[in-house]
Q: What sequence folds into this?
């Protein structure tokens, strides 16, 4: 399996753990990640401010992956969302595509797919291939899988899982020997980009989210988004519980050193829990 | 006799339709959007109310509301809407219109920092094409004068190796394209100012392109 790897801005900095664990897990599963000269997807700020910017930035990335003749794999939920929404818009509307190509001068012909890393790990890598690599089963670790708002919405563009009750991470957790807990907050928005401008609201949302995970009996939360991680990890107040990227859980179950997965860098320390479960 | 509800096809609703393809007349105020909205409880107007205000043509109130800035773009509303109103797209259009009409500075105090954050992020992109987080946060703190909150969190992130002080790789194509867009928009602002000078208070024309 070989993909153009859209690392995304956060994975170079505040979500470095996501990049580290993605690289480790993909290496272990023989998924080749080809780097390319990507730029920011524009995140929320672009589409909230200027529609041309919102289209042009993702279009540049799509064109560059297309030049490699590879589909794009994307860890970050927001980047996945933006690239996929724009990919669909440009594929469905040739006139719009021509206009954006004229603007960017790096033309995109609309031939590649954008995949969430979670889609690849849960649905493209065979179940047995994952299970074969498990040397430290998660042994009853109760995990609340938190998908957040952008991985499975809008369903026309982000359609690898159910829009209200996604199960990709839950199924992966099971394959790793963990116990996914059923809970009702899977796609509940954490407050996203209001983290700095209205921190009070993000704190309210994250405390409620963490509380819900605890009420469901979870030992920890699994996420697939840098902003979900940063918000729930750093802003859940006294409800705080360990939050791990799904790739970190995969890596730990595969016996990879927790430091190589960045599990020593979280704001809410997950190491006591991991030690207690003999995962470190 | 044919009845025409002008407010819903001209004015603000017409602009919204041109910008998003959404026909605001189809909204029958079921409230599913507000029910699933993460910020409606904290806003002056949630999505349902905002859609109704657009139906009624209440341009000034809507563009000066806190609700349009608190929307986080989670798309719960658009995903669940039974009428294909696409409230999140409509709200994006309202934010763009507020900017275009110079109303960002008049946003309610409770949300004035929100457009500042977006500006800081986009400014960071103008320089390097990728987000340089510490630079962006620095810009944002200077604009918002919210200098000291998060110092503890930032310190912890730095110590944990989660804050890169160095700028990321520069994406030249992105910088070039963003520069091009900035020039385009500046030309539009000038053209609009000239049109306004010649015919003050004329009917608001939406941008034809996205």
A:
């Amino acid at each position: 399996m070989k993909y153009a790897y859209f690392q995304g801005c956060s994975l170079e900095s505040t979500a470095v753990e996501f990049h580290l664990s993605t690289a480790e897990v993909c290496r272990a599963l023989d998924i080749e990640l080809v780097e390319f000269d990507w730029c920011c997807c524009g995140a929320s700020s672009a589409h909230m401010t200027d529609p041309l910017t919102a289209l042009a930035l993702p279009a540049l990335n799509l064109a560059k992956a297309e030049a490699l003749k590879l589909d794009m794999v994307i860890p970050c939920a927001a980047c996945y969302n933006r690239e996929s929404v724009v990919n669909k818009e440009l594929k469905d509307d040739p006139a719009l595509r021509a206009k954006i190509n004229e603007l960017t001068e790096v033309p995109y012909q609309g031939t590649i797919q954008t995949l969430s890393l979670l889609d690849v790990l849960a649905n493209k890598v065979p179940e047995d291939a994952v299970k074969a690599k498990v040397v430290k089963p998660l042994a009853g670790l109760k995990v609340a899988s938190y998908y957040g708002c952008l991985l499975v919405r809008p369903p026309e563009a982000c359609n690898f899982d159910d829009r209200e009750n996604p199960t990709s991470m839950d199924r992966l957790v099971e394959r790793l020997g963990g116990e996914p807990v059923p809970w009702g907050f899977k796609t509940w928005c954490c407050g996203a980009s209001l983290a700095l401008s209205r921190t009070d609201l993000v704190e309210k949302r994250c405390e409620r989210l963490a509380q819900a995970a605890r009420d469901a009996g979870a030992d920890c939360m699994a996420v697939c988004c840098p902003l979900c991680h940063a918000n729930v990890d750093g802003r859940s107040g006294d409800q705080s519980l360990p939050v791990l990227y799904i790739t970190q859980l995969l890596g730990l179950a595969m016996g990879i050193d927790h430091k190589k997965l960045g599990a020593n860098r979280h704001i809410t320390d997950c190491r006591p829990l991991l030690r207690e479960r003999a995962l470190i | 006799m044919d009845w025409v509800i002008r407010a819903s096809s001209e004015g603000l609703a017409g602009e919204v339709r041109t910008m998003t393809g959404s026909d605001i007349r189809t909204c029958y105020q079921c409230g599913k959007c507000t029910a699933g909205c993460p910020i409606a409880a904290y806003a002056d107007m949630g999505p349902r109310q905002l859609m109704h205000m657009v139906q009624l043509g209440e341009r000034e109130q809507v563009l000066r509301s806190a609700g349009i800035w608190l929307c986080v773009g989670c798309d719960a509303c658009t995903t669940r809407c039974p009428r294909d109103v696409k409230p999140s797209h409509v709200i994006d259009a309202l934010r763009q219109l507020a900017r275009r009409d110079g109303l960002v500075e008049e946003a309610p105090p409770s949300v004035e920092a929100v457009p500042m954050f977006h500006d800081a992020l986009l400014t960071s992109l103008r320089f390097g094409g990728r987000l340089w987080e510490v630079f962006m946060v620095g810009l944002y703190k200077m604009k918002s004068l919210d200098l000291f909150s998060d110092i503890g969190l930032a310190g912890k992130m730095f110590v944990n190796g989660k804050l890169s002080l160095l700028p990321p790789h520069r994406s030249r194509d992105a910088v070039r394209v963003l520069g091009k867009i900035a020039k385009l928009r500046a030309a539009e602002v000038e053209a609009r100012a000239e049109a306004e000078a010649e015919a003050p208070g004329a009917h608001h024309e939406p941008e034809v392109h996205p």
Q: What stands out?
A: Chain A has 13 helices and eight strands. Chain A touches chain B through 58 residues (CB under 8 Å). The mean pLDDT of chain A is 97.
